[in-house]
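Researcher: Please translate sequence to structure tokens.
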Amino acid sequence: MLTRSDIQNALSLAEYLPVIEEAHALHAQGKVYAPDLLHADVRNGEFHLKTGGICYGNEEYYGVKINGGFPRNMENYGLPNILGIIYICDARNGSPIAIMDSVTISKWRTGAATAVAAKYLAPEGRVQLGVFGYGTQAEIQAKALSLVRPIEIIRVSGRNVRKAESAKRTRHTGNLLFRGRGCPVQQLYRNSHSGTQVLYPQRMDTAGMFHCRNRSGQSRQAGTGSALGRFFRRCHRH
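Model: Translation complete:
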């Protein structure tokens, strides 16, 4: 059993990047079991069940992640809005290996996937980052991207100016603060300085593709994938 603190202490955010890169390489080599997804709505929220597996020579792992999303959890129960577990087993025979908290892996893996895509697809040089929304992922995305590109400024877009101002005051990635007020999406591009590349973590669509766009308007894509087996293998050896 691995708790949330166990997960947080096992790997830093920077150490997730090579994990994601290796998972992509193994996917390209056909050494993964195709992921699948099940979604279910309940009265006050929803559940996502995601599956996938990965192979390392004679070793094979299969993982199932079950996350519940309940937007009023904090308000009603003092609990995080997203809660869940990850179950890891030996894909060769189905024997259980581990059960672990899913929250940190879900958050950091998402940011790491964006950073890996940016590492290979974003233009070199300074980046002005446009972030849509003010939640936990806004901070994770900025921190992860700062590992692969020098970020000059972060501009946040969303519907609530009060939350944007709060994010600017409280969110930071090292010495890098969230700057600028909540602004319409179209202003993220107009406010950029001449000669500076602009990178948008634009969306995760149904195909699991990361989209980034530079100042010339060129859009590039990179797939994202699960690295749960790789994560467990590395933690297990440490």
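Researcher: Any highlights?
Model: Residues 173-196, 202-238 have pLDDT under 50 and may be disordered.
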